[in-house]
Amino acid sequence: MLDLVIRNGLVVDGSGSTPFPADIGIEGDRIAAVGALSDASAARVIDATGRIVTPGFIDTHSHTDFTVLGNPTQESTVRQGVTTEVVGNCGIGCYPLSELSRSAAVDRLRGLAYDGPVEWRSFGDFWTTVARAGTSANFASFVPHNAVRAAAGVRGPEFDADQLRRMVADVEEAMEAGAIGLSTGLEFEPGRLATADELRILAQTVGRHHGIYVSHMRNRDVAIAAALDEFLDLARAAGGRGQCSHLNVRHNTGAPEGAWSRAVERLERERAAGMDVFADATPMRTGDGTMAAILPPWLMADGPAVAAERLRDVDVRRRARDDGDRYWRFIAAGEWHRVRLLGSPEYPALCGLTFPEIAKQLGCDEWDAFFHILVAAGENIEGPGMIGELFTEEMSVGHVSHPLFLLGADTMSARVDGPLSLQTRHPLHFAAHTHILVHHVREVGALSLEEAVRKMTSMVADRFGLRDRGRLRTGAFADVAVIDFEGLAEVSTIERPLAYARGVEHVLVNGVAVVDDADHTGARPGRFLAPSGA
After folding, report:
1. pTM to 2 decimals?
2. Which of 55, 177, 249, 481 could connect to 260 by a Cys-Cys bridge, CB 3.0–4.6 Å?
3. Which domain holds residue 47?
4. Domains of the chain: total
5. At what angle do helices 196-208 and 224-237 cross, to 10 degrees?
6. Does 348 reside within a domain?
7. How far apart are CA 65 and CA 188, in angstroms?
8. CATH number at residue 454
9. Burial annotation 5-44 (CB, 10 A radius, 16+ → b, else e)
């Protein structure tokens, strides 16, 4: 007898093939059969008539490693059919840690609803801690470079031999513990001050373990070509395997005409020449980021607490404003109406407002309102986030539909209630994957249903070596979603973000129901997934 049969659904199997009617039989944590199973006996039957049945989605680019300890049921993502999240992206994370970096990590995690002990040291220690608590979905992870630097006490461009040995050792440990590769965030502190020599040594370390170098590049506007050159050089140092995180160009930021198309063409040429390089992108026109990413390097050089204190000084604010023409360059151009406050534990009532609205409430201009929020954050200055109107519709469709692009939310799993809801007020947290199916497939037709599902399942699993994931076939792990495709709705909006998407009726992770009849079951069957061969 089978444990479960999903009957009469339209199977979109993750391969990119045409959907077909079939039943899915599940035994334990694996798919036992795909086909006509009307005569099969099962302990439970789900009637999927009028529904599509897909592999559980794999979020290519997530930051849920920051929220998983405070939100282990991963409410907002599993309710969309996500069964695996790939984390440790953009060079940012809370592992590895040392006594040099632990305090800042504690502050960041406290702001994201986790109030438990922060005792881990290494990459492996962190994931052991997570496994002990349990998670509703699976995880795979990169080792984040900024965390590696911070744990070694490296903030500026210089490092000594002991610090280098420590960084290499932490990357080695992570790769041996099952990391996919190394991620860098070269627009963020402290990674943006890293030299080519440092990055090359760490990329080579990853290459020895057949890992992937993934990067949030130094620039995606006026200097995107040079940033892409650096990315490709480092991917070569890692053995030729690279992933360019959210390769896009924000509109009205001074980027050369056609910069995105030329960057993508460059990747295509490198692939044709033998490099194993891909890119990923978010599916929405809006996005979020950290407010501190706008701050100039000199201000952050002595650490977050010192930077927050310095920003109390009027002259420091003036200089920071003059030197802040980076990251979201349209801010320096005065386009504050494109920016909203995403999260600030100190100012929850201001979250969701545009900066002109915030400035009016605080009785100051937008820059002073911006600095005021960062000062209030103190040592957690890298915690407050912002929402920006970043891309044109043409750019968004181009990201999603291009064959070299995988798809990811670039956010953290969230909740509609509790303290975490104060930090996750963007539809990407609640509806990124639903948006792909609703907007890009059903409304716009930028992708076929089967291709969209492939980009969110087998394409990701194959890319990151997640064996037996991402396809509905006999022997694969039973990560499965049953979806009312016509009834799918995003619900969450910029103005009213705290709402779960609708239309995903059942979700299985390793054969265990985490969503049943559209409600979260509370189950935590998730696992840490090391790439095959690790």
Report:
1. 0.92
2. 249
3. 4-55+474-520
4. 3
5. 40
6. yes
7. 18
8. 3.20.20.140
9. bbbbbbbbbbbbeebeebbbbbbebbbbbbeebeebebee
